[in-house]
Amino acid sequence: MEETLKTTSLFGQHQKENAKLIPFAGWQMPLEYRGILEEHRTVRKKLGLFDLSHMGELEISGEGALDFLSEMITGNLTLVKPGQALYSVMCRDDGGILDDLVVYRMENKFMLVVNASNTDKISKWLEEHLPPDVSVKNRTDEIALLSIQGAPAETFLQHFCPDKLSALSYYHFIQSSVFEIPAIISRTGYTGEDGFELYVEAKQAPLLWEKIREREIPPIGLGARDTLRLEATYLLYGNDMDETTTPLEVGLSRVVKFEKEKFIGKQALLRQKEMEVPRKLIAFTMDDRSVARKDYPILLEGKNVGRVTSGTFSPTLEKGIGLGLVETMLTEWLSVGSEISVEVRGQPHPAIVSKKPFVQGSVKRGT
Question: Is 240 part of any domain?
């Protein structure tokens, strides 16, 4: 039986733009409009508009919401004030990553923004652990998410927003409006560039999209979103991490706060930390014209020591780039500049271990 794909409230706009539509995480989404390379370079040099309404939004409320969420994620939510957002992960008891997500702390509730492919899974996981004084509501179908990314994002958006956006720091948000449409405006993104994510009522999204498009901000598809995020070395769930990997293995130790009294997965992660993490995520650039792809073998002196988790052609660097999980014991002397190989279609191709990120964009990471 053929899967019935969901569509966002902006599906009509994508059709009007003649987007190339593909199935993605149960949704029919735009891969590209004018070509991935052109769209990628548009965001790096100017501004681009994304439809991210497939992402899941879960509302958590109730007297015990803070304590409940603190136990469900690895991050320290007690340090997050209303108007701030926190990037964190949610783990199983064995430390495997259920999802990486962003938690928005509002005055009397929280909003979790989760990966589209994991919305139902995370909703069910929360329900299974839910105390009687907390409720979870899946608001994904009610909320649309648009994103404006690129260095001039603040200057552009300020013309249509009554609040001072220069006062909005990275990973902070406000309840405001854009083009007089009520919106949560969040200084967050997934491209490495400065930008804002706009949460609005789904029924208002087409009007907001058209208002932005009237100002000649071009639409950007999921293809360029992937190349942009990889240049910035942002991880992708299902590629660089999943339930078989822990946050310590994929370079997310910074979001695991062991000083917390408890969180699901803490004991397993503590054991892994004390015994030495068995795998680590490295970044690499190809040293020839080849392009690495997911699951290609990574070789060291001819021996298979790991696999590529994400790989693409970098439009900015004009060469192949990638991330890969390698075995720590076999690669303990690897450092930036070390020579490795990636097996592409059965043949080894030279690569160099790189520092992260591959490309430093305009994103403001201050607090």
Answer: no
